[in-house]
Amino acid sequence: MSSLPRQMLVLTRASLASLPRRTAISLSMVLSVALVVAVLIGFLFMAAGLRQTLGTGGSPDVAIVLGGGTQEVGSSIPPEAARSLAAAGTSGGIADDPAGHLLLSREILVPVEATGVDGTSRMIALRGMETAGPALRASASIGEGRVFAPESREIVVGARLARDLGGLVPGKTIRLGPVDWTVAGILSADGGMAESEIWADLDAVRSAFDRLGEIQTLRARLAGPDGLATLQASLPTISTTPLTVVSEAEFLAGQSARTERLVTLFGWPIALLMAVGATAGALNTMMSSVSDRSVEIATLRVLGFSRVAAFTATFTEAALLSLAGGLLGAVASWGILDGWQASTLGANDTQLAFRLSVTPLAMLQAGTLALLVGCLGGALPAFAATRLPLVSALRGNG
């Protein structure tokens, strides 16, 4: 008989040519794999979108000081500590502007309830800050209107949040908590977390929500490459309350990692559980293929075709059907989910809007899972094709 590669090619062609006789069951295998891939890609796109949103805007030149916690809502900084840090000036590691004003902002974050354009209520982040606050966020800029005026009940609304709340524009009012606020501007942040926040004057927020004197975080521009170390060294001298300082980039990266882990923790087990079902479907499909071609396989074996060629043909069919399902699931997911606007609860129990994002790694992981389903589902039937009893298989045709 001819060489092994030629035998493998002949049997593989014959196997694929017989697919029209098994259209329904082959299509079910393709669709089941496509569904597994689509579910996995959905979770991976979500994780990538969250990573992009939370990771955008973090600067190594900006520091965040927290007191008694790792999240803003659970943090509390004594007012005297903030005053001492401001009095230390640039010697404390904090930079100043050309006019000599310290680039330091005392801030507070208040979760408030608001009604979206769809009529549902959601918790959003209202951030009170000092006048230096907006300038400390280099990736954020005012796209419409202007920044809020000091000591006023004006707000700046993130672009994504403005759309979710019914198309807020400068001049419009919205009730947050017990008072009405006037929209002064709309901010853009390259899709970053700031687009899911509302900014206002610190004293106005503290007065409206009865939090006079409260400070949750300090945000500051660092004075040079040694600024973070200098600031860290000065914290124990200004307060008995344990204070920690991290760069803004590190703070946002930590939030991103926690949220991304949570998404993938749910996504992978669900996808793998579905993959088990898809593997069972692939096994059934390929056993049907072997049964349908039993006489054909036996005849070729009698003519001198090897067991390896028979195994390769069935195994290749399973792999190709799975890859077809993986491609279908990937293309469908890409077309439907790429750029999809979604929202979830952020680290401060407030709404975080983000956009699902396509990544090559997600496609590669989903494609690998599809191929694995085909290989596992096709291995046993392929082995069965090599063990067909030739005499009984040929009699079955008679």
TrEMBL record:
Residues in MacB-like periplasmic core domain copies: 28-235
Domain (ABC3 transporter permease C-terminal): residue spans on this chain: 270-389
Gene Ontology molecular function terms on file: transmembrane transporter activity
Pfam families listed in its UniProt record: FtsX, MacB_PCD
Membrane-related topology note: Multi-pass membrane protein
Keywords assigned: Cell membrane, Membrane, Transmembrane, Transmembrane helix
Record-linked InterPro entries: ABC3_permease_C (IPR003838), MacB_PCD (IPR025857), Macrolide_Exporter_MacB (IPR050250)
Transmembrane segments: 23-46, 265-287, 308-337, 362-385
Recorded superkingdom: Bacteria
GO cellular component, one term: plasma membrane
Subcellular location(s) per record: Cell membrane
Name used for this protein in its record: Putative ABC transport system permease protein
Organism: Aureimonas pseudogalii
